[in-house]
Amino acid sequence: MISAGSPWTAEPPRTSRRGESPRLKADCVFEPTDMDHAEVRIHTMATDHVFNPEALDGSQPDPRPDEAPFEHSLRPTHLGDFIGQDRIVQDLTLAIEAAKGRGEPTDHILFSGPPGLGKTSLSRILANEMSAKLHSTTGPALERPKDLVGLLTHIELGDVLFIDEIHRIPTTVEEYLYSAMEDYSVDITLDTGPNARLITLPVKPFTLVGATTREGLLSAPFRARFGLFERLDPYPAEQLVRIIQRAARLLRMEIEESAAAYLAERSRGTPRIAGRFLRRARDLVQVSGKPALDFAAAQETLGRLGIDQNGLEEMDRRILQCLANQNGGPVSIKTIAAVVGETEDTLQDVYEPHLLRQGYLQKTARGRMLTPTGAKLVGFNLTSQGPGA
């Protein structure tokens, strides 16, 4: 039974068949009389933006029954199982052993780098190695200070708080993290005007692990409060082969080394993409009745996904073709986005890094330009035309 004045809140109720229910404000105190004609869901003080701890231990069904079990089953649980990023693994091993020896949490850690390289996996491994509970949320979910306070009140001694896309935390919420990270306390202002008073809420020592794809967007004071800075880089093909082979073993499927190499070379140095390719290849092998994933099946899988022999997707080829149509460039990112029908941020964050690493295009002060290697892929004679001709 929920009594009046309790800290529980309710969402706006849906309309019942008997008529329109009274509308509730998002943060209003829930009254028992409001249940007459309302179908409501009860939330904690942190609202529906705050993580559900039960979702981390698998006690609740995942809305994506096909993808989530695959991802969780393939994630390494110990540093010894983590393939690649050797320097980061060594740094974390040292930090964990030292923290265990002192009987205290590790320093706050900031993971940065492109998506899909293992930032979330490393945070889970850290919590597992420290025998600590993992609390997980995202930057956009922490819209207001009370969302953060709701998380911090659930933290026990030594727990790990993982915030993905931490650069997207609002400034007002970020400032509350300053004292929580340094002093393990949060100052809360109650009431306003002459009746305003400040109380200090103690927080048990914990480890904050932040993951970001844009480290430069973090403010200097926030970034300075982290003790470890680890940047993840794309994986070489040989490490991706090992990751694919390990995933295949866990899935109890046979895979030829040539097939694993073919998938790895076209995975953009990203384990997440390699896992996606393996999922689709597994579907093809299962439906076709093949005993193992061979080279031909790997080729057919990527062909169905629109991945060519150079590992380029349809959007990659459209970007290069746009530059070729402009005599190799330079072309502004805004113009490219308008031509290919994609947002500028998506082009810069998702597609350009791979094209730049492969040497297919280059960035200049005047815009993007096609390289001779990129021109060759789209059948454009850059030497005779000349960029900007």
Indicate the proportion of strand residues: 5-15%
* The first-level CATH class name of the largest domain: Alpha Beta
Q: How many DSSP helices?
A: 15
Q: Please give the order of strands in the largest beta sheet.
A: 4-5-8-3-9
Name of the CATH architecture of the largest domain: 3-Layer(aba) Sandwich
Report low-confidence residues grouped into runs of 5 or more: 1-68
CATH H level, superfamily name of the largest domain: P-loop containing nucleotide triphosphate hydrolases
Which structural class best describes the helix and strand composition? alpha/beta
Topology:
Layout: E1 9-10, E2 42-43, H1 67-74, H2 86-102, E3 109-112, H3 119-129, E4 134-138, H4 145-152, E5 160-164, H5 171-182, E6 185-190, E7 197-202, E8 207-212, H6 220-224, E9 228-231, H7 237-250, H8 257-265, H9 271-288, H10 295-304, H11 314-325, H12 333-340, H13 344-357, E10 361-364, E11 367-370, H14 372-377, H15 382-385
